[in-house]
Amino acid sequence: MKVAEVLRVTLLSTAIILGITGCGSDTEMTQEELQYISHLDQARFFQKQGELKASTLEARSAIELQPQRSEPYLLIINNLLIAGDAANAERQLDEFLELIPEQSLNNTERNRAHLIRAEALLMKGKPEQALATLELLDSPGNEEQLEANLLRGRILIDSGQLEKAGEVYRQAREANSNAIMPVIGLARVAWLSGDLDRASEMLDTASKIDESHPELWLLKARIADANEQWGEAETAYIRALENIGQYDVMTYRKYETISSLINVLRAQGKAREAFVYEEILAKSAPGTIRANLTAAQAALEENDLDSAAGYLEEILAQAPEHQQSALLLGLIRLRQGRVEEAETLLAPIAELGELDAASKLLAATRLSLNDIQGAREAIADLEGEESDPSVMALMGITALASGDTESGERIIESALSQKPDYHALRLRYVRYLVQAGRTEDALEQIRMLTDVPELRDDAWQLMVQAYASNGQLDQAVGAAEQWIKQQPENSRALLIRGELALQNEEPDTAERYFEQAREAAPGTAAPLVALARLALFREDRDGAIGLYRDALSIEPDTTNAIRGLSELLTPEELAAYMEDLLGQHSDAIAPGMVLLEQALMAENRSRADELTAKLIERTAENQPAEAEPLVAKLYYDTAARKMAEGDTAEAQQLLDRGRALFPNHLDIAVASASLAFRQGRPEQARKIVEETRLAHPESDRPLVVEAEYLANQGNHTAAARMYQLALEKQSHVITELAHARELNQAGDPEAAITALEQAMETWPNDPRLPLTLALFAQNQAQPDKAKQAYRRALELDSNNILALNNLAWLYFESDHPDALPLAERAYKLAPQSGSVADTYGWILFNKGFHEDSLPILEKAYELEPGEQIALHLAEAYKATGQQEKADALLEKL
Fold this sequence. Notes:
Helices cover 76% and strands 0% of the residues. By secondary structure, the protein is mainly alpha-helical.
């Protein structure tokens, strides 16, 4: 900072203070206000000097003193724009406008906010939105209008509208004859239009206004650079950097200008000078980010996910808002199966709505978590993109997952028709069709995949599976043999053919194929496991044990072999063999997991701790061991088994240990809270719930656990509120039903019905929702609404006995002709239900079929001897001339 400038700022501040304190009136400013003005003046001065960090600190000090004032907020946001951080600038502007609403700002402040947003949008590559924002300016002052016109000019140039840009710059120059930036803008337009004489004229004019202006020298440098006039370009870039380079952070313009200078130096063969500038960039924040990002992308290409994640974590530690790094790391975590971490990374990016890829990945992540509603929300803004098969795929898969099979199938088939080579989607669709028993539809899709090299084996296996699951074993065998004919050395095909032979009880044929598979893949465990199962089929226990051991000696983590041995050996024999296997393969996971499970079940805590430590030992500080999620799940599963056995004390011990080892494991935390509630420790339970909510802010499960406790305590109003909070996180049908149930039990059935109606919009294909709504409406004497809901339940589940029975009764009460057919259907489906038999019998009776109704009503009374059924049976006895039986029955009431 120059001495003269320091003196000028100090004198200015002193003059302000003296001027104010000399007034001696009621308007005299407080010490706090004086300090605020001083901090704000210093912030503006540091900004002009390029000391953005100091400027921001001073502005923050001003905010601490006067948090309701807008100037320091806008100054900080402007510093972010200068640094080139448009995303953060816009985010902080939004936060500022939430804190200080726009209507509370004066006209100048509102215009300033619009200009900042327009600049940020332009930097983010959103020119149309930037122009629309500029239209919001209201009676701008001269400086604001000039800034707006300069922004419009830049936007129009970037979008190739040079003639319009020239007109904007001319208007700006006419209104501001002494301003240099409109002249530089005109020079740039002329250069880009190919009018070099006009460009030169404008540059000369600009030089007369301010010969040292950085934008002037930057444009001269770019023109010389484009003309390969390397010496002139070098000089001009250096002159521009005298001003641009003054900033104490590596701004985007500074980085871009140094990069251009390096290229110019390289073009002149000035490697040493270029190296100096390259070192500056490499040590800067953007430089290290770029280097790490390049390294991460290279590691991803090599499928080295751990290394790629490490580089990306370094970037995010330095720049937490770096979207590209968060997006890539989210993708890696999804591929690694660390789905909750992926969601945490992707959700903030998707919420910004700027990267479609983030929304797509987030939807896929939430589908993996079975969060169907969350997946819907993630792709909600993409649903207009019907021409994008990847968006349609997500929409279709989400629809299928929510039970809307008709829409899901239609959307997926449309996506596949638009993009026939979308093989991954087709394969997933085939699996769905096979599971749904749609054999012919599945086969039609499979035939399009059998010639795709990377999916050939999956396609053939699904073809065999489709035939076999449909009971067409001959066709399954034919498909497997056709596969082998095409790939005679394919061990997977040989094993599947052998399995079919074993299913057909053809052990010799199965053995032949299994042995061929062993020859084709001698270093793998799968053929040996298959031969072990064949040995068991032949009741050769010792042979099976030997083959399972051979498989594990090759691949010690073969879970099928370990599972097979666990059924053949005693726990002691299995433990001894696992210890031996672990000694031979110290890096194996499965043997250690078996031993850990035994130790946990036997409550051998010291051995369990020893095995746990080995399994979850990390090779890198920020990279969990491969076995860590498996070990965490084992602690959770073992605790669940102990609770099922009634050993809640040991379950608590396991959960407490699990929480200590895996503090962010959602299942363990939720189980711990649930157990604490059940044991009458609500304070401890709520503490766990709160910690879990903080660790998993996107999860509904901590809230559901507390809601269940409140419901069990009879506090239905509080339970309903808690379920509502859970639904705001994630919607699940079971939670929607619980919410409605608690509203009903809290004495607000209308709210319960409304909640169910809203839930049906989210989950239109789940019959439980309309069925419950119908029951509530029927209890509230709303027969029309109940009938409509029962009909919807039957559309979704045509054999729902409760819906058939109750709708039949409502139809009976309104003399609907379908009452009897519905009651008969319900009775045929549930003949051992007293209430169903009563409904059918009583409707038969009232339709005049007295004799037919009698045995059914007798059966109803035998199944459920209640008063209502007894009265109906008594009427049937009377109508059939059996008055004595009627009297005897009525005397019992």
